[in-house]
Amino acid sequence: MIQIVIFLQLVLLFAMLGATNYVKKKAKNLADKEDLKDLTLIVQKVKIGFQKVLATHRVQFEAEFRYYEDVWCAARTLHKAFVKLLPLLAGVQVGDDEHKAFGETQQAFSDMMDKSQPFIAEPVWNQFQEFENVMLDEKVNKMYGLSVKDREPYRRHARETLEKCASVLRQHLSGTLEV
Fold first, then answer.
1. HSE-up (13 A, CA, CB side) for residue 74
2. Cα 58–Cα 61–Cα 66 angle in degrees, nearest 5
């Protein structure tokens, strides 16, 4: 009988030790779950914050990009009107329609530049401003009846200035797109 009591006590002792280890493991698992839950909440908050910043940046970039598209299209249209105003073939006469179209196109470009200025990065703005100055020189020449004798270098300068606008714009946008 004593042996049975000792045996039962040993079984009870092992059961208590096992239960204690079990309770300790359960408590550790519960603490780990709570820690994991807290960490998950922190990650979710950071993720939501990042998504908000990214969405804001995307909206700003898309708005800025639309202005760049508009200014670039206006610059290309102005350059086309400029080329029509200065044909390379000697003896080709330019009519009042071309002069009027150039003046109107130049004014539209100038208005676009004024409208877009707050939304365009300064280096890009400065380069388009240089292009506009080249176009204004031609407008002033036509207003005062001045004629450029050698048209090729003048046209080349206008084209190079426009190409420089494209280059500065590409450079700016490639820097904007870096994440």
1. 25
2. 125
Confidence of residue 25 (pLDDT cuts 50, 70, 90): confident
Q: Are 142 and 98 spatial neighbours (Cβ–Cβ below 8 Å)?
A: no
H or E element: which one contains 85?
Answer: helix 2-85
Each residue of 119-162: pLDDT tens digit? 899 999 999 999 999 888 876 766 656 565 667 787 888 899 99
Average pLDDT value over all residues in the chain? 82
- 67-74 contacts: CB < 8 A, separation 24 or more? 67/116, 67/119, 67/120, 68/120, 68/124, 68/169, 68/173, 70/112, 70/116, 71/112, 71/113, 71/116, 71/120, 71/128, 72/165, 72/166, 72/169, 74/108, 74/109, 74/112, 74/113
Question: Measured in whole angstroms, how far is the alpha carbon of residue 115 from the centre of its chain?
Answer: 19
